[in-house]
Amino acid sequence: MSGISVAFGGVAALSDVSLTVEPGQVHGLIGPNGAGKTTLFNVACGLVRPSAGRITWRGEELRRLKPSQLSTLGIARTLQGVGLFGGLSVLENVMVGAHRHARAGFVSALLALPTADKDDKVLRERAHQALVELGAESYADRYPGSLPYPVQKRVALARALVADPDLLLLDEPASGLAEDEMHELGELIRALSSRMSVLLVEHHMDLVMKVCDRITVLDSGEQIAAGTPAEVQADPKVTEAYLGDEVVETDAAELARTDGGRHV
Ligand SMILES: Nc1ncnc2c1ncn2[C@@H]1O[C@H](COP(=O)(O)OP(=O)(O)OP(=O)(O)O)[C@@H](O)[C@H]1O
């Protein structure tokens, strides 16, 4: 993505931001609250159309990118909300992510032609493998609503992985996870980078520093730093941006205490 700008109702959410995810690398996108991370992530998913800038994928410019194009482009994503289908089993949810590997079209599936049957078997097998990779195969027949949040997150990740993407977009995959689950997630993301590139939006700094090859830092819609984890950590502009954020959070916590926490 280069020179990306986005404005919501005249207010700039992103100004001239550029970011390249290199093949086989994990690229972190960080910044304090309201920095513009989700907005940039949504631009990459085709959910938000930038007012300026270019999105290029494998050397070709993607004009008017739509979320529905992602799977054909070899791009998969997980969103902040888990977004599983409540009426489908875990296995079926994951199968939805694998549909780009189906050879039969919608019509033959509808008419239950033999190709569709064969496809169904292949997709089931792929989905099962993805669940095994995420250690969630024992939940295959359960429904998402009955599962703990961390398991739902794994299923959502399995659904993204089953498409065998070249680029995986992850928006806050560690939110709501316990320390050991976060550690496992870190190992998994590192392992994934041998077969795909990853763009990771994440608040947990330990995780970001551990798994990313490169990091872009946003603050108030502007790119304030980019580089390796060590370079970014040593950048005074980054420390300053986060300090401001902590002061705001401390104020909020203080307010909650003095107000008995009723309004915060
Ligand atoms: N749909 C929208 N309409 C109006 N303003 C928006 C919209 N989405 C985001 N914004 C504004 O754009 C700015 C960037 O928001 P964004 O959610 O991208 O930041 P973020 O870095 O992801 O924040 P957080 O870490 O809190 O999730 C904020 O000022 C936010 O209020």
TrEMBL record:
Keywords of this protein's UniProt record, alphabetized? ATP-binding, Nucleotide-binding, Transport
Domain ABC transporter as annotated: residue spans: 1-245
Q: Which SMART domains match?
A: AAA
Entry's Gene Ontology molecular function annotations: ATP binding; ATP hydrolysis activity
Q: Write the protein's name.
A: Branched-chain amino acid transport system ATP-binding protein
Matching entries from PROSITE patterns are given as:
ABC_TRANSPORTER_2
Task: Name one cellular component (GO) term.
Answer: plasma membrane
One short Pfam family name for this protein?
A: ABC_tran
* InterPro entries, alphabetized: AAA+_ATPase (IPR003593), ABC_AA/LPS_Transport (IPR051120), ABC_transporter-like_ATP-bd (IPR003439), BCA_ABC_TP_C (IPR032823), P-loop_NTPase (IPR027417)
Q: Can you tell which superkingdom this protein's organism belongs to?
A: Bacteria
Query: Which CDD domains does the annotation name?
Result: ABC_Mj1267_LivG_branched (cd03219)
Protein's organism: Blastococcus mobilis
